[in-house]
Structures are given as structure tokens and as C-alpha cells.
TrEMBL record:
<keyword id="KW-0285">Flavoprotein</keyword>
<feature type="domain" description="Luciferase-like">
    <location>
        <begin position="17"/>
        <end position="241"/>
    </location>
</feature>
<keyword id="KW-0288">FMN</keyword>
<dbReference type="GO" id="GO:0046306">
    <property type="term" value="P:alkanesulfonate catabolic process"/>
</dbReference>
<dbReference type="InterPro" id="IPR036661">
    <property type="entry name" value="Luciferase-like_sf"/>
</dbReference>
<dbReference type="InterPro" id="IPR050172">
    <property type="entry name" value="SsuD_RutA_monooxygenase"/>
</dbReference>
<dbReference type="Pfam" id="PF00296">
    <property type="entry name" value="Bac_luciferase"/>
</dbReference>
<dbReference type="InterPro" id="IPR011251">
    <property type="entry name" value="Luciferase-like_dom"/>
</dbReference>
<keyword id="KW-0503">Monooxygenase</keyword>
<dbReference type="InterPro" id="IPR019921">
    <property type="entry name" value="Lucif-like_OxRdtase_Rv2161c"/>
</dbReference>
<dbReference type="GO" id="GO:0008726">
    <property type="term" value="F:alkanesulfonate monooxygenase activity"/>
</dbReference>
<keyword id="KW-0560">Oxidoreductase</keyword>
<protein>
    <submittedName>
        <fullName>Unannotated protein</fullName>
    </submittedName>
</protein>
Amino acid sequence: MTGVGLCLPQLGPHVTVEVVAEFARRADALGYSGLWVQDHFMYPLAPERGYGAKDVLPPDQYKSVWAPTETLAFVAGITENVALGTSILVAGNHWPVPLAQRLATIDQMSRGRLIVGLGVGWSPEEHVAAGTDVTERGRRMDDFVPTMLACWGPDPVSHESEFFSVPESCVNPKPFGGRRPKLLSGMWSAQGLERTARWFDAWNPAGLPVGKVQKMVASMDAKRPAGRHGLEVYYRSFVQAPNGPAPADGDNMSALVADAVAVREAGFADLCLEHNFWSGIRSPEDWLAIPDRFLPVLEAARG
């Protein structure tokens, strides 16, 4: 059965701990499949490159972003069933050994509900602030994933590669139940799709027709290592695109329901409902109304 996930209250000026808690509990109670966070930690005022198009600043919602792993750790303790996922963490914002420990801790706290989404990112300024080089982000990702996987494997852990060196050590906790979290790719380039086929369990496309996604996944599946199952798809659908116009019908419900039907018929694992950039969020109460408001999308995905 295809699930529908929601983005946790994380971006913008109306996020409070009370909003996060009530939103998460309500989504869990209603049967949503996942709660998702993303990863930015600063808003450059004069960025070197535009967001999505030349000379366009990132959406205003990015001026305040709650930290993703800390937010998921909090939500892990107040929910029971819903998956907790990153869509996505920017590898250049992190170092794989401490990130592996933080993620394994969340997986333990949630008793195995974590999904780890990773991508290479786009902001030169964030990479500089994190102490990484944006021009090396692809090659660094090629080292990042196996380093993190090594940390989740048996102790003692040791790893040597171009970017990372882990002297023989114990790295704990390990993920819950003796198996690693599902890895979700947020990469799009030709090289990124190659990495997705090689290392990841699922793909997180957005803004593409369902039919095109199916063809791209079939191409990646043909390149999978022997013995690996086909890639699952967590399809991202926008209530309102970043920096885009407000939906003519207020909440884009008809298009989202149509996406849910198409995703279900395609056999995708999940529809990730992206509402962070929706101009309809003007207050904490608007955040809290989202789980009930978008129930028609959940029902359409269930069929």
C-alpha cells in the first residue's frame, strides 16, 4: 500500500515545540506513513548562485530552519508508528562518523523507524561554513556513504578513503535491531543517479511526471549491484512550489489527489507531501490543521 508522509513543522516563523509535538502526534494517530525534515542551517543574503534560477534568492521560509536530527530525536519520543525521515540531509553539512552516531541514536529512540535521505546540496556558502568544498561534493559523497555504513557495521570500525579516515574504533550505538536504516537518495545528476543505483535503497524525486520517474528508476535498477532489490520511490509532491505562485484552489488539493492516485497505480512506496512553502501557513494554527486538511490525499493513496 502506498503511504503519504508529511513534512514536520520545521521551516518558517510559526514553528514552536508545541506545534511540532501536536502536529506529530496527530499525523501518527491519523495513519500518515512518515514525518520528514530537511537540512539547511543558514540563509545567505548575497548567495554566489541563485536558488533554482539565476539571481533568485532562496524562499523566505529558509530564514528559520529547525535542526533536522534534533527535531527527529524529539519526535521519536512522542510517536509510535510513523516513519521518521530526512528528505534530505546535505552531506556537505556533515561529517560521516558523528552523523552515523546521531542517526543510529534516533533509530534506537524510534525503535527502527528512521529513513536516512542524503543529497549533495547546492549552497556554496553552507559548504564554506561547514568546512567543506562545494566543488568536491560529488566525490565526497562517494566516500561519505561507505564511511557511514562502516560505522553502522561491526566493531572495531576502521576506514580509509580520500576524504575520511577512521582509526580502529568502537562506534556506537548501532542502528536498532541489527539492521541499518533505509537509505534514500535525493540526487538528480547523471553521477548522482549512478550513486543512487550503487548505494541506495530508494529515490526521492520531485517535479517529474510519474511515467518519467518509472523510466529513470528502471534505468537505475538495471545498474544495481547483484542481489540488490529494485529501488523504492518516495515521490515528492508540492502543495506550493518554492518561490512559486499560490495554488488557484487554495491548497492544490485536486492536483495532490491526482498525484496520490498516480503514485499508487505506479506502485511507488510513498508520496511525500511538501507543504513547507505553502503561503497558506500564516500561523501556528495553520500548521496544526494540515494533517486533517490533507486527509483526502491519504485516502486517495490508499485506494
